[in-house]
Amino acid sequence: MKKLWAPWRMEYIRESIIENNEGCIFCLGKEVDKDRERLILHRGERAFVMMNKFPYNNGHMLIAPYRHIADFNDLTDEESLEMQRLLGRCITAVKATMHPQGFNIG
Ligand SMILES: [Zn+2]
Fold it and tell me: Is residue 103 part of a domain?
């Protein structure tokens, strides 16, 4: 079995978590003018899509609800549905631009 190793993530661990403690990346606020800088690709009604600054692999995106919840089962039906639809749009975009052999969705 091969190990997944993304050494560029060490910068994230060292600078973002240990040294800067920058705060919550999921608190977007209303400042849409900073979305590009913050790697926000899309703001939906109940959830949003952002790129991972320190990805495990090319095309790594995050789909998250605006609400901060710790348990997947705490999602409302509306949040779950919107996140599924956003996932479909992300898959379509990655297929069109990167032509991957598959997807790792988790
Ligand atoms: Zn937050």
Answer: no
Q: State the burial class of residue 73 (Cβ atoms within 10 Å of its Cβ: 0-12, 13-18, 19+).
A: exposed
Residues with CB under 5 A from ligand 1 (ion): 24, 26-27
Q: Taking the model in full, what pTM does it have?
A: 0.78
Q: In angstroms, what is the span from residue 69 Cα to ligand 1's centroid? A: 10
pLDDT digits (tens, 9 = 90+) for 49-86: 999 888 878 889 999 999 999 999 999 999 999 999 99
CA of 24 to the centre of ligand 1 (A): 4
Considering its fold, how many domains does the chain have in total? 1
Cα 32 to ligand 1 centre (Å): 16
Is position 92 within any domain?
yes
- Burial zone of 34 (CB within 10 Å; 0-12 exposed, 13-18 middle, 19+ buried): exposed
Give 38 Cα–ligand 1 centroid separation in angstroms.
14
